[in-house]
Specification:
The chain is α/β, with parallel strands linked by helices. Helix content is 29%, strand content 26%. It contains seven helices and seven strands. The protein has helices at 2-13, 26-32, 51-58, 70-83, 121-131, 148-155, 180-184, and strands at 41-45, 62-67, 87-91, 104-110, 132-143, 189-200, 207-217. The protein has a seven-stranded mixed sheet with strand order 3-2-1-4-5-7-6. It starts with a helix and ends in a 5-residue tail after the last strand. The structure holds S-adenosylmethionine.
């Protein structure tokens, strides 16, 4: 499954266009748009072609980007070179990434916690909690049990159908329950939280996603 996922994302990212586009979720751009980020350090976990990292880096943030897709990181590096952005790609599985304590002002985990094996996910959540600086900001989004892919997965694990499910739904390891993302970061100050179902026209054939999306701060007194 891991190598199939890696191969598939590499093939998606090998095309000239950005597979997911360069647009980020509106809650993310709305929050960071007016922030001065030139002294900040970010971490984008499962960055893919790096749309979130590029957004932050264009605002002056130095961003460490982790993904196991070489094609995704190559594309991201090319943008970084062309625009002289401070981007540090790390080609590796997240399981092999070393989380240094209190190191990042911003951590992005966009559609990655739901792609990790069940035994790895809690370790990565602990890594995020520990490596975010006190007062630092986490942006995380995941697919939920409202996602059409969840129904398909329950009926037939890893099956793929065209139509209203995503072309990468076979690589989902876990669809989040109502409020599960919030509960994982219990103790953080959650200042934005959304759950809902939306159409996604950004990649593949038109499909729907059940989303949970969250912006949260690590408490200062940790
Ligand atoms: C759905 S994509 C999201 C990409 C990006 N975060 C975005 O929103 O555009 C999931 C990404 O996670 C990466 N990924 C999945 N499992 C991973 C793992 N165990 N280690 C590193 N990267 C992983 C895939 O290569 C892929 O680029």
């Amino acid at each position: 499954m891991d190598s199939k996922s890696k191969k598939t994302f590499n093939s998606f990212y090998s095309k000239e266009d950005f597979y997911y586009g360069l647009e980020v979720r509106p809650e993310f751009s709305e929050y960071f748009n007016d922030k001065a980020l030139s002294e900040k350090v970010g971490l984008d976990l499962g960055c893919g072609e790096g749309r979130y990292a590029i957004f932050l880096a264009r605002k002056g943030c130095r961003v460490v980007c982790v993904d196991r897709s070489k094609a995704g990181l190559d594309k991201l590096e090319e943008v970084g070179r062309t625009e002289s952005l401070q981007i540090s790609p790390r080609l590796k599985g997240i399981a092999d990434f070393t989380f240094m304590e209190n190191s990042y002002d911003i951590i992005v985990a966009a559609t990655i916690l739901d792609h990790l094996d069940n035994d790895l996910r809690p370790r990565i959540v602990e890594g995020i909690k520990s490596s975010l600086k006190p007062g630092g900001t986490l942006y995380a989004n995941v697919f939920t049990v409202q996602d059409p892919g969840y129904r398909v997965k329950k009926a037939a694990p890893c099956s793929m159908e065209s139509g209203d499910i995503s072309d990468t739904s076979a690589f989902m390891t876990h669809y989040f329950e109502h409020d599960e993302l919030k509960a994982m970061f219990n103790g953080f100050e959650i200042f934005y939280y959304y759950e809902g179902v939306e159409q996604d026209l950004s990649h593949g054939s038109p499909h729907a996603h059940g989303w949970a999306s969250m912006l949260a701060k690590k408490p200062l007194d940790t």
